[in-house]
């Protein structure tokens, strides 16, 4: 290489080394002798600096960068396009890393407020336009429907919802982006969008009409003040779910198992307060329905593994019993010790812990009785059928979660709360029936 070539190469390297790194303190600053960079490059640098400021806990720098991003009206369309692009890119990355729409929206709701939830829900709807419907798993589509993640706007910039406070909108979008940047990979429960191969009806899919009827009956059971009515409504829901689940088990127990039924996973929210006892409640319900539950406390959910019909039974029963437990706990009122200090938190912690353990006892008793009755009716040894289903679920759990630790609920420090919780569990209306084959053929 000649001297002139080396000088030209060195000059290029010097210019690259002096590339604009963003405005320190929010002011524009460019290397001497260099023209202002293109708006797209400048905005990208500002946004990157804002993300870094939050990631590295540089509190003063973040609002200064937001001010710079919103201070120049000429940058408005460039900033909007960049934010929309970042939201879509990081959501696509989340899908590849095992996250699903409900997981992302739930986590945003735990960390921020309703406006952040609206933003990320719309961003999910916008990102999903990139995939052909035939390449989106039906479980994925079910979550989009439940979230009402639909495109309601004409131009994408509209869903950013500036609403007269541009700085707040930019900060809000950046906060969602930063949360997405921090997401760690999760266990994959179904194929990400773009890679699924949908058929006319997915194997093991639960009849939505039946599920709607079950949920309507449970809603009536939860809302009535009369215990006899609650038992009537819940018994009807139990009957529907049991019949459907028995049919599914019979198909799966067929000689060739042509249904393609296999264990799946579902994530259910475990919200504060008193997450520990709530996680135990879910665990005992899952066990009674031949499922397994693994709690991810820091993310606010538990992953339940099992066959589709049983997963649905676990979800509706957990929801119903949690509503009943919360209602009973609130009716019990607040508690104070002899010195007037509040003991409400310890009372409720103990209440829910006792409730969960007692529900577990009742479900185990019901499961044992149902096995005995079905054995008498069919004249068959049902234990091999049940054991085979359990082994498949255990294998799926071990594959997905090779290293597990036991769920801990913390200490129980309030005897009155424990006694009250067990009493409430005894009064609770159970919507459960062991999912086993009957005498049908």
Automatic annotation (TrEMBL):
Segments of this protein annotated with the region Disordered: 1-39
DUF2786 domain residues: 209-247
Residue ranges occupied by any DUF7168 domain in the UniProt entry: 279-381
Superkingdom as given in the UniProt entry: Bacteria
Basic and acidic residues bias spans: 1-18
Xref: Pfam families: DUF2786 (PF10979), DUF7168 (PF23771)
InterPro entries in alphabetical order: DUF2786, DUF7168
The protein's name in its UniProt record: DUF2786 domain-containing protein
Organism from which the protein derives: Microbispora amethystogenes
């Amino acid at each position: 290489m000649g001297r002139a070539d080396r000088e030209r190469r060195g000059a290029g390297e010097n210019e690259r080394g002096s590339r604009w790194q963003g405005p320190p303190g929010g002011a524009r600053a460019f290397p001497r002798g260099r023209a202002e960079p293109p708006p797209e490059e400048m905005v990208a640098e500002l946004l990157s600096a804002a993300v870094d400021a939050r990631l590295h806990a540089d509190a003063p720098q973040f609002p200064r960068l937001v001010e710079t991003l919103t201070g120049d009206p000429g940058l408005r369309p460039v900033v909007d396009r960049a934010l929309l692009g970042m939201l879509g890119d990081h959501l696509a990355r989340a899908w590849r890393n095992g996250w699903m729409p409900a997981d992302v929206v739930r986590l945003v709701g735990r960390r921020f407020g309703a406006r952040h939830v609206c933003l990320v829900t719309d961003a999910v709807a916008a990102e999903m336009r990139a995939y052909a419907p035939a390449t989106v798993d039906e479980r994925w589509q079910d979550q989009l429907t439940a979230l009402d993640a639909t495109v309601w706007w004409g131009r994408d910039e509209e869903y950013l919802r500036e609403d007269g406070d541009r700085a707040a909108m930019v900060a809000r979008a950046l906060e969602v982006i930063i949360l997405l940047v921090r997401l760690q990979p999760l266990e994959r429960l179904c194929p990400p969008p773009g890679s699924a191969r949908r058929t006319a009806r997915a194997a093991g899919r639960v009849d939505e009409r039946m599920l709607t009827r079950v949920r309507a009956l449970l809603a009536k059971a939860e809302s009535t003040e009369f215990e006899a009515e609650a038992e009537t409504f819940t018994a009807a829901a139990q009957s529907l779910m049991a019949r459907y689940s028995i049919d599914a088990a019979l198909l799966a127990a067929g000689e060739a198992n042509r249904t393609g039924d296999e264990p799946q996973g579902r994530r259910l929210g475990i919200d504060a307060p008193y997450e520990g006892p709530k996680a135990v409640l879910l665990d005992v319900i899952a066990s009674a329905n031949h499922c397994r539950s693994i709690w991810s406390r820091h993310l606010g959910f538990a992953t339940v593994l099992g066959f589709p019909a049983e997963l649905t039974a676990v979800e509706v029963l957990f929801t119903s019993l949690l509503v009943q437990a919360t209602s009973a706990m609130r009716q019990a009122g607040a508690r104070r010790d002899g010195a007037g200090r509040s003991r409400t938190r310890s009372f409720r912690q103990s209440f829910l812990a006792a409730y969960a353990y007692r529900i577990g006892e009742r479900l185990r008793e019901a499961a044992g009785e149902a096995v005995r009755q079905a054995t008498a009716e069919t004249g068959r040894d049902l234990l091999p059928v049940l054991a085979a289903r359990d082994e498949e679920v255990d294998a799926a759990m071990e594959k997905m979660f090779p290293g597990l630790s036991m769920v801990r609920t913390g200490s129980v420090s309030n005897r009155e709360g424990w006694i009250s919780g067990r009493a409430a569990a005894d009064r609770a209306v159970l919507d459960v029936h062991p999912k086993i084959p009957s005498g049908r053929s």
